[in-house]
Specification:
The structure holds two protein chains of two kinds.
Chain A: H1 19-43, H2 49-69, H3 87-110, H4 117-141, H5 147-150, H6 154-175, H7 183-207, H8 212-220, H9 222-242, H10 250-270
Helix pairs in contact in A: 1-2, 1-4, 1-6, 1-10, 2-3, 3-4, 4-6, 6-7, 6-10, 7-9, 9-10
Chain B: E1 4-9, H1 18-27, E2 37-45, E3 48-56, H2 65-69, E4 75-77, E5 83-85, H3 95-99, E6 106-107, H4 121-126, E7 135-136, H5 142-150, H6 164-168, E8 174-178, H7 185-192, E9 193-196, E10 208-214
Classes of the chains: A mainly alpha, B alpha+beta.
Chain lengths: 298, 219
């Protein structure tokens, strides 16, 4: 039996969700980022099949990881029972049209497109991917037990991380000719926006006095996350943009951009998720002793 | 209407954990799982340190974050304020566990018993395979309350309709009852004493009140 005497109600790292849960956010983010990118490409008449297919595979892998996390995987369909308030149900609901539109778009593209029907469906898949990604961000915000996830600034960070991961994989696909070179500029822009969102999120945590363990875990990845995942990634993308003969280096930038996003989410779920702990605002009056307010009560 | 709540008088709690033991016996929770815990807090810094024993567990909130998060509706709030889990619906995703600000939930992935692979007679009598692989937590001994009220008993007053932890408390620190009944013990205790609820800022409206001093202005 674990005794609380040592902990005394102080914040502790949650152990309910591990890397398998993080994989849902990783696969879902990267996958929806790719599907959204594919829908934009489809709108502009560009090839969209490779990013759409890859995106759906990523989302499916993320959802599969969840099946290994939950205690009763054979009851997984019960997840659809509570759309009124549960963001997890809403995520599941969004997954249905995402795969539906995506699969039919791919099928039509395979058979020649049927006019522009394949592109129209790819755009619909992109719209539902936006919804899926938003639900993922809100899943974390609704977790009232984990202060580091409740911060409002986490939502734009999760959204931009998903989009930038998608752009990163797209840059990789572009290097192999499966997407236009214009994606390098989009990846660069998203890299910058994600960095801004990260800084806002980190500043918010410090300002709102989130548990020290959460802030330390996120501080710990700062150098790798910003240095490799943003600065170095941006340099490769800029190089590809200003000197087209070496455009293939954008592939490295894309990989760095994507890996940094995965890394940040893995840390956010598994190492920065300290509970708020148990705390009392006042001590009881006992004997002749007086009550006193307890400082640092979150 | 009925709103069942629990009251813990922090002036009276001595940290003996009898409530914890009673809960384990009544609900057959496996080793390491405590639906009713008593947290031993140290407040202040040397030499001015105070020790406070804080009984805790599910707070049976007015707006339970766990129920809102639950994707299956397995976690639900009853009309009498008790937050319960339907173990046949729960998928064990533990979204409820990260949503709960009170660390009140646990998941047990395999049957475990206190003395090896075989359950004791008491554990065997209370073992429920539906609780494996799903979230579990304190339910205010809801079966006892339902059976008691069906028999015309009053929860919080009659031991056969009262949670095991309250019955077992040696110092009378724990009380249980209907907050909507102005004559109930919990209503009187809350009226006559200064109290707080944990993490009120979370907006969950906990149904667990902590008393810390006599209210000199109480009517």
């Amino acid at each position: 039996m674990k005794n609380d005497r040592a902990a005394g109600g102080r914040p502790r790292l949650q152990r309910y969700w591990d890397l398998r849960a993080a994989c849902n956010f990783i696969g879902g983010g990267t996958g929806t980022g790719l599907v959204i990118a594919a829908s934009v490409l489809a709108m502009f008449g560009k090839p969209f099949v490779a990013p759409l297919l890859t995106g759906l595979v990523f989302v499916a892998l993320g959802l599969t990881a969840i099946l290994f996390e939950i205690g009763r995987p054979w009851r997984a369909l019960n997840v659809f029972f509570h759309p009124q308030t549960s963001w997890m149900t809403r995520e599941g609901v969004m997954a249905l049209p995402l795969f539906g539109f995506g699969a039919v778009a791919l099928l039509l593209a395979w058979f020649g497109g049927y006019g522009n029907a394949d592109r129209a469906l790819a755009v619909f898949a992109g719209l539902t991917a936006c919804g899926f990604l938003y639900c993922q961000a809100r899943i974390l915000r609704a977790a009232k037990g984990i202060p580091a996830w409740r911060d409002a600034a986490l939502t734009p960070f999760i959204l931009l991380t998903g989009l930038s991961e998608g752009a990163g994989v797209l840059a990789l696909l572009a290097a192999f000719g499966f997407a236009p070179d214009a994606v390098y500029a989009a990846a660069l822009l998203l890299c910058l926006l994600r960095l801004i969102a990260w800084q806002r999120y980190r500043a918010g945590l410090a300002h709102r006095n989130a548990p020290e363990a959460s802030r330390k875990a996120l501080d710990g990845i700062g150098l790798a996350f910003i240095g490799l995942g943003h600065v170095l990634a941006a340099l490769f993308l800029i190089a590809a943009l200003v000197w087209p003969p070496i455009a293939a280096v954008a592939m490295i930038g894309g990989v760095l951009l994507t890996l940094a996003g995965w890394f940040s989410k893995a840390v956010l779920i598994t190492r920065a998720a300290a509970t708020r702990g148990l705390a009392i605002p006042r001590t009881p009056v006992r004997g002749r002793g007086a009550s006193r307010a307890v400082a640092g009560n979150r | 209407m009925t709103r069942y709540v629990m009251v813990a008088d922090l002036r009276r709690c001595v940290g003996c954990q009898t409530c914890t033991a009673a809960c384990k016996l009544a609900n057959g929770t496996p080793p390491g799982v405590q639906w009713r815990r008593v947290v031993d807090m140290e407040v202040g810094s040397y030499p001015d340190v105070q020790r406070v024993f804080v009984p805790t567990g599910c707070q049976h909130c007015d707006e339970p974050a766990c129920a809102a998060a639950c994707p299956t509706t397995a976690t639900h709030k009853r009309a009498d304020g008790i937050v319960d889990i339907d173990y046949d619906l729960c998928i064990g995703c533990l979204y409820c566990a990260v949503a709960c600000p009170y660390e009140a939930r646990t998941l047990v992935n395999a049957a475990e018993f206190a003395y090896g692979a075989e359950p004791t007679a008491a554990e065997a009598a209370r073992f429920d395979p539906r609780k494996i692989g799903v979230a579990q937590k304190c339910n205010f001994c809801v079966d006892k309350i339902d059976a008691g009220t069906a028999a015309g008993l009053t929860p919080g007053k009659d031991p056969d309709a009262t949670p095991a932890c309250v019955n077992a408390c040696i110092s009378g620190a724990l009380a249980f009852g209907d907050l909507d009944d102005p004559d109930s013990r919990v209503s009187r205790l809350i009226r006559e004493n200064k109290h707080f609820r944990m993490h009120e800022d979370a907006g969950t409206g906990p149904g667990f009140y902590y008393l810390w001093d006599k209210d000199a202005f109480a009517l």
